[in-house]
Amino acid sequence: MTIQASAIQAFIFDLDGVITDTAKYHYKAWKQLADELGLPFDHAFNEQLKGIDRMASLEKILSQMEDGGRSISIQQKEHWAAHKNSVYQQLIEAVDESEILPGIEALFHELKEAQLRIGLASASRNAETLLKQLKVEAYFDCIVDPASIANGKPAPDIFLAAARGLGVHPSSCIGVEDAEAGIQAIKGAGMYAVGVGDASILSKADMVVPDTSKLTLTSIKAHWSQVGEVKKSAVQGV
Ligand SMILES: O=P(O)(O)OC[C@H]1O[C@@H](O)[C@H](O)[C@@H](O)[C@@H]1O
Ligand SMILES: [Mg+2]
């Protein structure tokens, strides 16, 4: 019996830190809020917030308070989350196509030429605005609205919704992420996970590239078919 890796039919991308380096603006905006609240915040702490939605990120920051943030009312939390978002929106106001990360637009072209579908699975409620500012919105066949998703990353829901929106089985999708929570979400959805960044942080990915300039359809296809070969030999006992 042989297992044939089904063909790749779609790519589903995260936005922040994959298509554009807005991860640095999220960091700055959270850092400003944490400083105002007198709570510690550094790059290592920020790593845990990547891929995580706005309110869950705030909860993690507030969990450093003496009472774990339990005394803070919902209204207060909403006020702080909105404050962080307005700082973030000022920081991204001037983002334009010059801030698309290296290799990303070339990859989009390659995918379109190969007639593969493209989806977006970003936790950010600012994602669509950014795609417009970057002038890449037209490449996308499906953009999942994160407000419609019950469970954020690391749950697989947003990647599964993107696959449904694209009409493609998850096993034929490649997910691309820069966050540990995002890689967990892709794997939980039963997709092939490509990590962008530090291989020790993204150790659960099927393949990791150090930066987006190394993301090409040819190299991803080569890794993907190796996984198919491994599955075949596991079944055949060779
Ligand atoms: O606050 P927004 O724009 O809705 O973004 C939510 C989250 O979106 C993710 O893409 C980012 O990695 C997180 O850092 C961010 O908190
Ligand atoms: Mg990201």
UniProtKB/TrEMBL annotation:
InterPro entries (UniProt xref): B-phosphoglucomutase_hydrolase, Beta-PGM, HAD-like_sf, HAD-SF_hydro_IA, HAD_sf, PGP-like_dom2
Biological process, per Gene Ontology: carbohydrate metabolic process
Alphabetical UniProt keywords: Magnesium, Metal-binding
Requisite cofactors: Mg(2+)
Any one GO MF annotation of this record: magnesium ion binding
Cofactor note as given: Binds 2 magnesium ions per subunit.
Active site (catalytic residues): D14, D16
Binding of Mg(2+), residues: D14, D16, E177, D178
Site location (Important for catalytic activity and assists the phosphoryl transfer reaction to Asp8 by balancing charge and orienting the reacting groups): S122, K153
This protein's record includes keyword Metal-binding: yes
Keyword Metal-binding carried by entry: yes
Protein residues bound to substrate: 14-16, 30, 49-54, 57, 84, 122-126, 153
Family: Belongs to the HAD-like hydrolase superfamily. CbbY/CbbZ/Gph/YieH family.
Name assigned to this protein: Beta-phosphoglucomutase
